[in-house]
């Protein structure tokens, strides 16, 4: 089976992860702009991070035969540094229109402060102006209220729920998010958030429509193989293959494909390019696969 | 604005796409704002597509005059549209405006930017940018500068040129596709490559048969020794390359032919 992991922070992952993901069938992934585990203090750090997402990381991913897309946005935590947030807002239009940018995100609330609310709304307006989907990060603390409030604000701005993905949903928030018409995404984290057993139960309850599974693997304990592993468990528990395919591939493609920046043909028609890049002898692979040549930097 | 490019795009693009490009150009001419330039540059693939272009003989000869070796690489509609936008910037400020774009560009944009520099009236001002670009580890971006592009041969100093050629060898690039690779060979480069060949021999690791091209014409006794060893112990292609360097007048395949064979994908 082929999979899309529509939420994974590859800048924090190793080449072992890329290899394992490819071997497990991941053909495309989306890397949402996020924070780095500690707050940035200069706008230049954002600029270089955004450039990495559309440049080096996209290239690095292609080396392993995985098509890389990203979302652009100012995350809610760092929205609380207002002078910095203002400067990042200036940068965003430049990056939001780049090729392969499939949404504005991940945006929303962390502590639900006034500053978070301000930059959340400004970025909703940017997404509407550029006609891009929106990826919503729902908070870990006070999740239910934070999730409902995010949807209220989106609706206040006139957003079409079919162009919004609400991520990090759980058993408590799923019903409301689905009922209000949004793409409903679940992060399968080892330990916290959603485990894959719970995901199977959710699938049995709600079916596959508008449901998306992702790993959100980052610099913390997380599993970049969450999507293929969850798919395997679903199949084992008797969920039909076509349903599994929707939640681990098709729905993400439909939701983010609305950007006009992500098409199935991007990876189905381009394997030769990737293979050529894979073996072309460069500093990511250090050529170990094919010859004994080592590239030193 | 580059008139040949403008003309070619007018002929190739569907009316709607060309109109989009024209409207962006006229906005930039009337009231130049870097932001409008960046947005137009970024949006090119969406509005003019990414189709590979084919050119008539007469169009090609015009383009080859403006840009030597133009016909050696593929060009897409978004690339040429982006380059046309670059050439519409006033030369007094284009360095600053493009610097910002280089710093924030995505993979595909970088390729168009580096392929387009030669078209600029003040192309010579972009040597530091080109040298910075050559530090990349993204193969496609490196290739956009180093392979078939007339910019390095015309504008890079000998040291900068040598750095580029060495890096191309380290990255296993097809050396024969570097424009004017033959004309810009030099004694210093031959020496560096000879050091490299010896270092690899000590490590029991092979070098590309294309390496000997850079020794050809600079036959020191040290070079001769290395070539004779290779002519004796190398693979058939290495032998052929070493023989060619040792006996420049003998009948043998061209360096380009050796290069093509050396870089054929092995399956």
From TrEMBL, chain A:
MF terms (GO), sorted A to Z: hydrolase activity, acting on ester bonds; metal ion binding
Protein family per UniProt: Belongs to the metallo-dependent hydrolases superfamily.
Pfam families: TatD_DNase
Assigned keywords, A-Z: Hydrolase, Metal-binding
Name recorded for this polypeptide: Hydrolase TatD
Source superkingdom: Bacteria
Database matches in InterPro entries: Metal_Hydrolase, TatD-like, UCP005295
Lineage, uppermost ranks: Bacteria, Pseudomonadati, Bacteroidota, Saprospiria, Saprospirales
From TrEMBL, chain B:
Start-end of Polar residues biased regions: 251-267
Chain positions covered by the region annotation Disordered: 233-267
InterPro entries according to UniProt: EboA_dom (IPR047715)
Name this protein carries in UniProt: Uncharacterized protein
């Amino acid at each position: 089976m082929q999979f899309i992991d529509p939420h994974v922070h590859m800048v924090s992952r190793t080449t072992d992860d890329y290899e394992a993901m490819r071997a497990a069938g991941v053909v495309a992934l989306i890397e949402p702009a996020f924070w780095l585990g500690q707050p940035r203090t200069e706008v230049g750090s954002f600029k270089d991070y955004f450039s990495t997402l559309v440049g080096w990381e996209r290239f690095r991913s292609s080396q392993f035969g995985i098509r890389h897309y990203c979302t652009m946005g100012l995350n809610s935590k760092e929205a609380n540094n207002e002078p910095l947030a203002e400067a990042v807002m200036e940068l965003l239009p430049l990056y939001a229109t780049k090729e392969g940018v499939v949404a504005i995100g991940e945006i929303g609330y962390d502590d639900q402060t006034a500053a978070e609310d301000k930059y959340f709304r400004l970025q909703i307006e940017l997404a509407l102006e550029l006609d891009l989907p929106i990826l919503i990060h729902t908070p870990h603390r006070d999740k239910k209220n934070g999730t409902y409030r995010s949807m209220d604000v989106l609706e206040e701005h006139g957003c079409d729920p079919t162009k919004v993905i609400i991520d990090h949903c759980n058993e408590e928030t799923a019903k409301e998010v689905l009922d209000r018409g949004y793409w409903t995404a679940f992060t399968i984290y080892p330990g916290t958030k959603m485990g894959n057993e719970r995901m199977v139960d959710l699938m049995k309850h709600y079916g596959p429509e508008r449901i998306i599974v992702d790993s959100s693997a980052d610099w913390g304990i997380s599993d970049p193989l969450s999507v293929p592993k969850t798919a395997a468990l679903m199949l084992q528990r008797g969920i039909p293959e076509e349903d599994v395919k929707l939640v681990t591939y098709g729905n993400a493609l439909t939701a983010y494909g609305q950007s006009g920046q992500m098409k199935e043909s991007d990876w189905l028609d381009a394997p030769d390019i990737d293979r050529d890049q894979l073996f072309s002898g460069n500093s990511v692979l250090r050529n170990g696969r094919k010859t004994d040549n080592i590239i030193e930097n | 604005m580059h008139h040949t490019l403008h003309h070619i795009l007018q002929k190739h693009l569907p009316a709607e796409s060309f109109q989009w490009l024209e409207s962006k150009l006229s906005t930039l001419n009337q009231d130049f704002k870097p932001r409008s330039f960046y947005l137009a540059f970024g949006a090119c693939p969406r509005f003019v597509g990414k189709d590979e272009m084919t050119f008539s003989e007469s169009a090609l000869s015009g383009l080859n005059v403006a840009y030597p070796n133009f016909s050696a690489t593929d060009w897409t509609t978004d690339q040429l549209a982006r380059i046309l936008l670059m050439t519409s910037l006033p030369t007094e400020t284009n360095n600053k405006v493009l610097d910002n774009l280089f710093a924030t560009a995505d993979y595909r944009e970088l390729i168009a930017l580096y392929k387009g520099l030669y078209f600029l009236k003040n192309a010579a001002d972009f040597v530091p940018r080109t040298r910075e670009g050559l530090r990349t580890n993204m193969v496609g971006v490196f290739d956009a500068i180093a392979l078939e592009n007339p910019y390095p041969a015309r504008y890079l100093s000998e040291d900068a040129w040598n750095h580029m050629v060495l890096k191309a060898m380290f990255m296993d690039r097809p050396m024969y596709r570097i424009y004017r690779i033959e004309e810009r060979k030099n004694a210093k480069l031959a020496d560096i490559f000879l050091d490299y060949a010896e270092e690899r021999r000590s490590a029991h690791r092979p070098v590309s048969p294309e390496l000997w091209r850079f020794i050809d014409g600079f036959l020191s006794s040290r070079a001769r020794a290395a070539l004779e060893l290779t002519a004796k112990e190398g693979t058939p292609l290495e032998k052929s390359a070493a023989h060619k360097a040792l006996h420049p007048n003998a009948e043998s395949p061209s360096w380009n032919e050796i290069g093509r064979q050396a870089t054929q994908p092995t399956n």
